[in-house]
């Protein structure tokens, strides 16, 4: 037992911890989902509600996950059991493992598309295509049966290779290289976008709130998006924090990760909306925004070819640092709970996820007639994970920390056994005990009963 703990891999540096956790948080959720969800929900007003949820609910939930993982020193399931032996709380961790499966399955579909689009931009395939052509070729690509599947599998293998190398020599090493790269790429694209003629209108759309567009659904989407974007509610951050050093300040880490994640989401907005407006395109055009609209814009923009390449590399890098955190949840669970080697665990997890993933990918083509409540396999996985499993997991995580684990454990974890001042503790405690559970439950119930399955 002690032997087992002594052998656990750990992150080696503070920057490594931030890079890995921010790498998990920053992903397709920021660059692909955030702009179109914000676009469909009123732009600036959505951004404000979103940032409010990130700071008031996201940060405390993230601190709770960190506290559970670092205290428990195990995977998402095992950490609950080591804090509360003989109780059923481990089930939350299991929900997390299932959620990781679901998310990985549909996430790697889109991540795979980004690889095809890197190749398309390098080979200049978008040149001279009209917007209609771009739409037709995107739809033809995602509905075909071979290429999207191959790219998805390539992406899974890349993810698996990094996870296989371990926490320090794999996850930490690669996220430390990839996150600064990601930042530089997005910065270049932001500068290009705001210097386009007519960029102002796009910036106004993002930063000038129009509250007439706000409905109950806006709150639901904003909280759902906050959870998804911060990688909350399914134990990814429990798993990562089980590798944090005992000296790490959990509260400041959570704030830094949340700020980096929000910064990148805002930068994604700055990079996309001015371009969208300056070329006279509708901002609310949905998930196809980055695959149809943007290539069309790049094509008309001076130097667009090179910016297109940068953009799709950016998307792929962002997705990769997120998929490794998702796969790590499953691998840590398999290897520690089934007591198998990391190698075997990675192999089994990768194969299992790939099988489910292929169904998600094919649901845009040959399996598009397979539906549940009118949703495709891809949408069912996305909806169930993002709107059901993550809020449910988040709810139980805050209930566990607020009501079960007790002040003593939580306070000693957040203060590093009393060596850090935690003046914020009463507020934290109040939020995880009352505010967060009520907010999550309210929005969850709203989404199930009034939002319908639509
Ligand atoms: N946060 C990532 C994104 O924004 C996706 C992600 C990675 C995730 N790990 C997660 C979402 C865990 C929920 C839970 O793209």
List the defining traits of the structure above:
454 residues, mainly alpha, Amino acid/polyamine transporter I, two-stranded antiparallel ribbon, disordered N terminus, binds tryptophan
Total number of β-strand segments? 2
Major β-sheet profile: 2 strands, antiparallel
Which superfamily, in CATH terms, is the homologous superfamily?
Answer: Amino acid/polyamine transporter I
Bound compounds, each kind once, are: tryptophan
Folded structure, characterized:
The chain has 454 residues and is mostly helical. The chain has one domain: Amino acid/polyamine transporter I. 76% of the residues lie in helices and 1% in strands. The protein has helices spanning 2-6, 14-25, 28-40, 44-72, 76-83, 90-122, 131-142, 147-164, 167-194, 199-207, 216-229, 236-241, 250-278, 293-300, 304-337, 342-362, 377-414, 425-450, and strands spanning 371-372, 375-376. It has a two-stranded antiparallel sheet. The longest helix is centred in the last third of the chain and has 38 residues, at 377-414. The N and C termini lie far apart (48 Å). Mean pLDDT is 92; it is low at 1-6. Bound molecules: tryptophan (TRP).
